[in-house]
Write a structure and sequence with these properties.
Blueprint (H helix, E strand, L loop, with lengths): L1 H53 L7 E4 L4 E2 L7 H10 L3 E2 L8 E4 L3 E6 L2 E3 L2 E3 L2 E8 L2 E7 L9 E2 L4 E5 L5 E3 L9 H11 L11 H14 L9 H10 L6 H17 L2 H11 L1 E5 L2 E4 H10 L8 H9 L13 H17 L5 H9 L16 H15 L10 E4 L3 H18 L6 E9 L5 E5 L11 H4 L2 E2 L5 H9 L10 E4 L4 E2 L5 E2 L10 E4 H6 L3 H11 L1 H10 L18 E2 L1 H12 L3 E2 L5 E5 L14 E2 L3 H17 L3 H6 L6 E6 L5 E7 L3 E9 L13 H11 L13 E7 L13 E7 L15 H7 L1
Parallel strand pairs: 1-15, 3-4, 12-14
Antiparallel strand pairs: 1-11, 2-10, 4-5, 5-8, 6-7, 8-9, 13-14, 15-25, 16-17, 16-29, 18-23, 19-22, 20-21, 24-26, 27-28, 28-29, 30-31
Length: 766
């Protein structure tokens, strides 16, 4: 038995060694297979990472900007308007500007340190200037560095909104060199102190976090590096699993191997989730700065920068509007870490910790609700560039919107409609404001609730425009200067017209009275119907239609006599177009809502622009403006003139039959406005042009103090003298005369005041 056992030992050892060799061979082969799998998987992940990092990291929402305010000698911008613009842009008023984003002001001057920004014509560097004002607006803009006067100086536009993609992510990209150093310092101290030392994964941090979590019995500390967090945010879900963590670590190693620490930091700072703005996820420090503070990230205080880093841990938990104490406590922790690591002095720490959070008002949205205007912008973009433009990443659309005009229009609509609704229930409104100088749409309201997204009455309604057509009737007449002047007597007697079907039409004045004869100027300012029909018939209805269409009316007009009193259907936008022509010395330019579009590389996209044309001779147009000024001074809009004494305004009231539609169109030196007030069902309102739409315009000017029309006579206009009764041109020394502007080409004053020459005058003359 003993001998047998001894004989089997070598066999057992040999079997054991064979088993271990087989196991080792299997392990070695499995290891090779595993390495091959990991290698191929790493290559696969590397391709995914490279495609993301070296291509388009994010779909950057299309950005819509307001107009860029231009300041130059003679610009129609007054001191209060510029102050309001700077406040809107988030500039800080100080005693002496010491850095970008600050300004100081006296009663006639503003010293401004402008931010750098991207303008459609190229990058604009930061600049410190002195802007001076006089009674007409801007008198000079001088560069502080060398006192050189600038021809034109632009303020940065207001970012109105971003058109986000379907993923709901919103961000403003900020390059790493433009990110404040305090944010980077705080981020590394709070989130990943060994960021510059590890290779994407920090095993010690993971082990330390595991021990802390095991000891606490729950997850209280994370061991992920910034690179791991970036990998998760970019490529993975928030699922808690070993597989996801392994994949995250592997991707972090690849990212760290392929890219520099600065590239990783830039990606993280623009990717990190910072909060929720309703349906939009706020990503990146750039947008978070605007979301929480309403200012560019480069202008934040150290305290505010610390808060942005603090909120990363839990944007909902540290929501500063809902939990201000919790948010401030977390911010102070970040400030203390900066101080303890010599990034702040003790004095700087105390000052920052004692400062309030400095949040923007939660009532003020970072997105402008401009449904009427944005609808027009999108339609114009489709017409110019097609449907896909706004889906492209990084597109920048520069619009014509004037934020101050829009705010004034919205306030005017809201306040006036609340008052008018007591007189006429369920009334609605449409309003368009244009920039007289640029021909751009400065403001638009399509509903009595300005932010309501629905039927856009500023564009889509078609209602009879009533007496708003009369300036074009008289422009057609005054253009025939051999027959008409502002003093020409016009018949105001009962008339009856018969059409081809034998139907008759007997127009009447508003007061149902007749004056026999009235000067043409009186017929305009008092909006008299019968004289207007007589003038229109004298010059020809077709000529009036032609004047209207040359001025920009883009829909057909039936050439019947009734159109002379406004039997023409239009919208506030259509009215604004033709009144823009009246305000712009008779020059027609198609209204636009867009000034420029830049692609993701900041290159301007080409677009053809419609040429301008002279619809009404400048001299004739001046006479029409003069008459419209008298409408405000002493005519149907005199209540408006009384509200703004000493300010020259031009305007025209309009009312359709049975007071169904109330209209007003007018302008000052800066803006043209067209307003409709009425019922959606076309029922009677009991409102006239002066009591409905003009009330909205008056409220608009109260919000946005008007600039007086300069009314400088153009070439071809002289000061004439006319007999008050006959309208005959006279000499300045004659009796019973009135002084009125006249066209030089046709002004032929009668000699000797129209009286026969005496014998001695004949003798002297002979």
């Amino acid at each position: 038995m003993t001998k047998k056992t001894t004989t089997n030992k070598p066999l057992a050892k040999k079997a054991t060694r064979s088993w271990w060799r087989s196991l080792w061979s299997l392990i070695w082969k499995l290891t090779l297979v595993g390495l091959a799998v990991v290698t191929f998987y790493a290559i696969y992940l590397d391709q995914i990472i490279a495609q993301k990092f070296e291509g388009q990291k994010w779909h950057l929402p299309a950005q819509m900007f307001s107009r860029s305010m231009a300041l130059y000698p003679g610009a129609a911008v007054n001191h209060p308007q510029l102050m309001a613009e700077l406040k809107l842009l988030g500039y800080r008023k100080v005693a002496n500007p010491r850095q970008v984003g600050e300004f100081s002001a006296s009663s006639t001057r503003i010293e401004l340190w402008r931010r750098p920004f991207l303008h459609p014509e190229g990058n604009q560097a930061e600049q410190r200037v002195m802007i001076s004002f006089d009674s007409e607006g801007v008198s000079s803009v001088k560069r502080m560095s060398d006192k050189r006067e600038l021809a034109v100086f632009h303020l940065e536009p207001v970012l109105l909104d971003r058109i986000i993609a379907g993923d709901g992510e919103d961000r403003l990209f900020v390059p790493a060199p433009q990110m404040p150093q305090s944010i980077i310092d705080a981020l590394i101290l709070v989130e990943d102190r060994s960021f510059y030392d590890h290779h994407g994964v920090n095993p010690l941090a993971i082990a330390r976090a595991a021990l802390v979590n095991i000891s606490a019995g729950r997850t209280v500390q994370g061991g992920s590096t910034l690179t791991q967090q970036l990998a998760k945010n970019f490529f993975l879900s928030s699922e808690r699993s070993i597989v996801r963590k392994v994949r995250e670590a592997l991707m972090a190693l690849i990212i760290d191997f392929r890219y520099s620490k600065d590239e990783i930091l830039e990606a993280y700072l623009n990717e990190v989730y910072m909060g929720q703005d309703k349906a939009r996820g706020v990503h990146g420090m750039g947008l978070a700065s605007q979301f929480y503070f309403g200012r560019p990230v480069g202008e934040l205080t150290v305290s505010q920068q610390a808060f942005l880093v603090a909120v990363i841990k839990g944007p909902s938990y540290y929501n500063p509007w809902r939990y201000p104490e919790r948010a401030q406590e977390r911010r102070d922790l970040v400030l203390r870490l900066l101080m303890e690591n010599d990034k702040l002095t003790v004095a700087q720490y105390k000052a920052a910790a004692e400062s309030p959070l400095g949040l923007r008002s939660s009532q003020k949205s970072v997105h402008q609700k401009l449904p009427a205007f944005f609808a027009v912008v999108k339609q114009e973009l489709r017409e110019r560039y097609g449907d896909s433009l706004l889906q492209q990443s990084g597109v920048k659309v520069y619009t014509t919107l004037d934020p101050m005009a829009q705010e004034a229009a919205e306030k005017a609509v809201s306040s006036t409609m609340a008052s008018l609704d007591k007189r006429a229930k369920n009334i609605q409104v449409g309003m368009v404001v244009t920039d007289k100088y640029t021909g751009g749409i400065a403001a638009m309201v399509g509903d009595k609730v300005p932010g309501y997204e629905g039927f856009n009455r500023a564009v889509e309604i078609r209602r009879p425009i009533g007496s708003l057509i009369k300036p074009f009737v008289y422009a057609s007449a005054l253009n025939q200067s051999d027959k008409f002047s502002l003093a020409t007597p016009i018949d105001d007697k009962p008339i009856t017209l018969k059409n081809e079907q034998g139907k008759t039409w007997s127009p009447k004045n508003f007061d149902k009275k007749f004056s026999g004869q009235v000067p043409l100027l009186t017929a305009i300012k008092d909006s008299m119907n019968v004289p207007t029909v007589n003038v229109g018939l004298a010059v020809g209805v077709d000529n009036v239609v032609s004047t209207l269409q040359k001025s920009g009316w883009d829909e057909s007009v039936s050439p019947y006599p009734s159109m002379l009193l406004g039997a023409v259907n239009g919208s506030p936008l259509m009215v604004a177009q033709v009144y823009q022509t009246l305000a712009d010395e008779g020059r027609y330019r198609k209204l636009t809502s867009i000034t420029a579009v830049l692609d993701s590389q900041n290159q301007a996209l080409d677009v053809s622009r419609a040429p301008s044309s002279q619809a009404i001779a400048p001299a004739t147009d001046y006479l029409v403006q003069y008459a419209m000024n008298h409408v405000v001074r002493s005519g149907t809009a005199k209540r408006l003139g009384a509200a703004f004494p000493g300010v020259r305004l031009a305007g025209k009231t309009g009312t359709s039959n049975d007071s169904r539609d109330s209209w007003f169109a007018g302008f000052d030196e800066r803006n043209v406005a067209a307003i409709w007030v009425g019922q959606d069902d076309n029922s009677k309102t009991g409102l006239y042009g002066s009591s409905g739409a003009m009330a909205v315009y008056q409220a608009f000017l109260q919000q946005r103090p008007p600039l007086s029309l300069r009314m400088v006579p153009v070439n071809g206009v002289i000061n004439g003298y006319f007999d008050r009764t006959t309208g005959v041109a006279k000499q300045a020394n004659c009796d019973n005369i009135i002084s009125l502007p006249a066209l030089e080409t046709s002004y032929r004053p009668a000699e000797n005041c129209g009286e026969p020459l005496s014998w001695w005058q004949k003798l002297v003359g002979g």
